[in-house]
Amino acid sequence: MRTISRSHQVYIRGRGRLARWLALLVIVGLGVQFFRVQILKHTTYALQSEGNRVRQLPVPAARGTIYDRNGEVIAENVPGYSIAFLPLSIDSLRVVLDELAPILELSGEQFDRMVENYRRHPNRPVTVARNASFAEVSAIEERRAHLPGGIVIEAAPKRLYTRNSLLAHVVGYVAEISDADLRLPEFEGYEPGRIVGQTGVERVYDRLLAGTPGVRYVEVSALGRVVGEFRGRPTVEPVPGRDLYLNIDLALQERAAELFPDTMAGAIVAMEPRTGAVLAMYSAPSYDPNLFVGGFEPAAWRVLNTDPGQPLFNRAVTAAYAPGSTFKLIMAGIALKEGHAVVDTKMQIPCRGALRYGNRVFHDWTPIGHGSLDLHGAIRQSCDVYFYQLGLKMSLPVVLAGVSEFGIGQPTGIDLPSDIAGSYPPDTVWYDERYGRSGWTNSVVLNLAIGQGENAQSPLKMAQIFAALANGGTLPTPRVARTGAAPEPAGSFPLDADQLAVLDSALVAVLNEPTGTARGSRLRDWTLAGKTGTAQNPHGEDHAWFIGFAPAEDPQIVAAALVEAGGHGSSAAAPIVSRLIDFYLRERIVRPDSSEAAGG
Amino acid sequence: MRERVTLSIGDGVVLALVVGLAAFGVAMIFSAGELEVPSSVTGIWRKQAIWLAISLIAFALTLRVAVRWLEWVAPIAYGVAVLLLIAVLIVGTGDGPRSWIRFGAVGFQPSEFAKLATILMLAKLNAGRERSPETLWDLWPYLVVVLVPFALIMAEPDLGTASVFVAILVAALYWSGLPFSKLALFLSPLVSLALAFSTPLWGVWFLLLVGFLYWTRAYLTESLAVIFANVAMGVLVRPAWRSLAEYQKTRILAFLQPEADPQGAGWHLIQSQVAIGSGGWLGKGFTLGTQKRLAFLPEQHTDFIVAVLGEEFGFIGICLVLLCFAIVLWRVLLIAERSDDAFASTVVFGVIALWFAHLFANVGMTVGLFPITGLPLPFLSYGGSFLLMSFVMLAIVQRVAVDTRTGA
User: Fold this and answer.
1) CATH number for position A271
2) How close B361 gets to chain A, by Cα (Å)?
């Protein structure tokens, strides 16, 4: 053995000591670094550790059921599956979507939309399918082993509209909230990806129906696989939405849909004249709201939206048509109020089928003419020549200013979206601005007097006005849903009872006197009152109107029908309203005396 | 009787601490396999336990081997190691570096054996000298002994393991009594290597070096060699960088700037720090580390076993393990100091240098003090060859301790 020389050994001793202390210093240095990471930065890293592994999954709340006034189900929830994915990156999302696309039949558009959704909200689960079938779920479960982690399949209540297209425009449908809606105050506090009512009562009563979604906290692995509940934060249970009862009478609604001619477009509205409760509202053509329930049906939406028949459009509330002769009641009302006419006021010129004004000839709807009529007769026979003269007598400013007291120019106040105000010139300045100071003449008053010209109203608005004629002059606020306190009336007519009686008796005469324009639609058992209307349509056949109520002595129902390009109101619209009202009074009103009779 | 037993196992405290660390390592590897997701790590603690048993037997056997015999066998062992390292380049397997030779189910890393063989060979060089080396020319045998395995391992390519040989070389030279000034000159090309990325910095360093050479009155040839080596390093580093494998480049870059690419190269370091940092004072409890359970920790049973430790046992657990290592290193260094045999003393010091390099690189990388190199932590990380070789080295150390005390 070579022992180390003494001098060398001293050397070694010194170097050994140095090495020992250096090693100790380095280990202490390591400890200091751990102190920094584990103690000083503990809070930061603890938070990061939690954020790393905890994801929020929304738990959808069961939406409230929608019933008709008799408790029949209109919209309910059925079990469904939603498929969501917790992506780690845009690439992992693409990989998963590539895998799922053939199973779920995802379109390229849906694919891009999901990628875009992820880009905008990278911390939210990406919903791949809201309405997966059991077969699709099984197909995914079978392939789970080959798919990346992070796919979450959950039972999710799915909306079902039991009556399909029957009530589409009233009930609406639900789908994922749009970015535009997210910015609206009515959806304040809603999170992206939430299912909301897109239209109809589903939209208007969304806060009530939707309930509050819950939140589930889950732990995910580094690969995004959900490994279980996160115990650190308890699940927030969803609060189910409340049920909603509608004023709609499904049987009456069905009858309205049956009565409406199959191939035509238009609308039917039926209300209780006193309360404004909407008993039926049908807009043709209609659509099946179930098509939208997946939440991602842009294709279905596009088809419906580009359909020339515009099935998505609620013609009862949102479409405006020249009201035609139905508007003569408002003209008569203004005349009565302003003292330009009483019940037996006749005009200077008897009706010979036309009236010359300036260098123009204004025709009556019948070339034969009506002869000399008083106000009652003029309404009964819808004499245009009488109303031309009445309009001239009242003068244009009165005709323009008078309508607002009869409810024209403001929305109906119904609890449905897109409640339009209709259009009617507010004053002569409007004509100046539109046509220039010399671009129009006083003859516009002739057109306005018979409900033509620059005048367009929705069927609902006209039904509301006729409800006021039926109930003693109060404009009821139409209500689809039976919830909360009864709304304030929208206004009342500036007429006394006698003046209203003039109008009402004329409306009775329209159906029940021999020369009435809608005599063919009178009812045997009840006194039906109403008014036809035939609105000029620049695109084709005239639009047919009829608005009526019954029984005239104690009105229970007011109904309006509009048939686009239907021709004459008396032939195309009056029979619909007449039969609908007859059905309602016969089948749907439970009378104490009739039930007694049945009992005896 | 009692006295003899104590003596025959050497330093009882070191042995107890090392066996304790290894047993704790098995427990940590068990925990590393406790995940919420399927993992290949689950259950491998049993393998490590078997390796520990084998290692203890190897320890007992090696303890009986005379140090003198080791000195005799060192050149042969070194030759075998070099041949194995050549073999691994031809028939080796492994993802990343090809560092494994497999015989059926049993795998073996020749580089582990090469570490010990190189330590022995360097010790033999030291022991063969009458006096301490005094000039840089005296160092060429050391350089050759280390460069051969270094180059072969770099070719695998395994930068981390290869750099351990630099540590072994420096340790051997330090222990040989080479004057510090010469040691500094010898290591100066490494500084050039580090500074070569910035020409101004390297320029300043070069001027300092020239000044230092003049001040120490170095021999002209020596000076020229040092200057040549520094210039070569400064110039060669860029092509050398380009020759590195992509994963090696990204690891070094990730060390320098982990936040730059949190999903990519910096991922390991960030996840490791999050795991350790979220452990706090006392940790989340044995097997309960959430980062680990949810598979955010990479290589949690080998490279990042310390991250599991830090997450589950907190700062206290880390400190206890570091304390154990400090005591072991301290006491083994005392063994090296006290040995009066040049060969034995250098071997012990080399072993210490090896363990220390592993400890610093492994623990340091989990908290961002060192690039991620994939060097395992002695006695704690999963890995049979390394555990076995560590216990063989421990046996040699203990034998030296026994020999010193008994004056054999």
Assistant:
1) 3.40.710.10
2) 10
How many residues are recorded in chain A? Answer: 600
The phi, psi pair for B101, rounded to 5°, reads -115, 125
In a domain, A45, yes or no: no
Whether B277 sits inside 8 A of A27 (CB atoms) is no
A-chain residues near B21 (CB < 8 A): none
From CA B57, how far away is CA B388, in angstroms rounded? 10
DSSP per residue over B137-203, as a string?
Answer: GGGHHHHHHHHHHHHHHHTTT-HHHHHHHHHHHHHHHHHHT--HHHHHHHHHHHHHHHHTTSHHHHH
* pLDDT score of B263: 56
Do the chains contact at A34 and B318, CB–CB below 8 Å?
A: yes
* Residues 48 through 77 of chain A touching chain B, CB cutoff 8 Å: 48-50, 52-53
* Number of domains observed in the structure of chain B: 1
Q: Is the pLDDT of residue A195 over 90?
A: no
Q: How many CB pairs under 8 A join A and B?
A: 155
State yes or no: pLDDT of B293 exceeds 50: yes
Q: Is the model more confident about A151 or about B167?
A: B167
Measured between beta carbons, which residues in chain A are less than 8 angstroms from residue B35? 221
β-strands A174-176, A151-161: how paired? Answer: unpaired
Average pLDDT, stretch A490-508? Answer: 93
Partner residue opposite B274 with nearest CB, options A19, A29, A52: A52
Match 């046509």 to its residue by tokens.
Answer: A435
- What's the structural domain count of chain A? 3
Same domain, A330 and A396: yes
Asked if B277's CB is within 8 angstroms of A49's CB, the reply is yes
In a domain, A598, yes or no: no
pLDDT at residue number B261: 57
- Does residue A170 sit in the same domain as residue A25? no
Amino acid A135: pLDDT: 82
Parent domain of B328: 2-406
Spacing of C-alpha B34 from chain mean position: 28
Whether residues A29 and A140 share a domain: the answer is no
Q: Does a structural domain hold residue A599?
A: no
Distance between CA atoms of residues A125 and A58, nearest Å: 9
pLDDT for B1? 39
- CATH number of the domain where residue A140 is located: 3.90.1310.10
Angle at A92 between CA A87 and CA A98, to 5 degrees: 115
Specify whether A504 is located in the same domain as A580.
yes
Partner A contacted by B59 (CB < 8 A): no
User: Does A32 reach chain B within 8 Å, measured CB to CB?
Assistant: no
* CA dist., res. B66 & res. B69, Å (int): 5
Q: Are residues A35 and A58 in the same domain?
A: no
Same domain (yes/no): A228, A365? no
pTM of the model: 0.65
Of A23, A48, A222, the CB nearest to B356: A23
* Interface membership of B132 toward A (CB under 8 Å): yes
A259 in the same domain as A200? no
- Token pair, residue B369, equals 């003090």
How would you classify the pairing of strands A66-67 and A244-245? parallel
Residue with tokens 């076993």: B305
Q: Where does the pLDDT of residue A161 fall: very low under 50, low under 70, confident under 90, or very high at 90 and above?
A: very high
Give me the domain span that covers residue A185: 54-245
Nearest CA-CA partner of A400 in A372, A425, A368, A429: A425
Question: Which residues of chain B make contact with A23, given a CB cutoff of 8 A?
Answer: 326, 329-330, 333, 352, 356
* B363 to chain A: closest CA residue: A30
| A197 close to A174: Cβ distance less than 8 angstroms | yes
Q: Render A332-376 in DSSP notation, one character per residue.
A: HHHHHHHTS--TT---SS-BSSEEEETTEEEE-SSTT--BS--HH
The mean pLDDT of A546-555, rounded to a whole number, is 94
Give CA B115 to chain center in angstroms. 9
DSSP summary character for residue A523: -
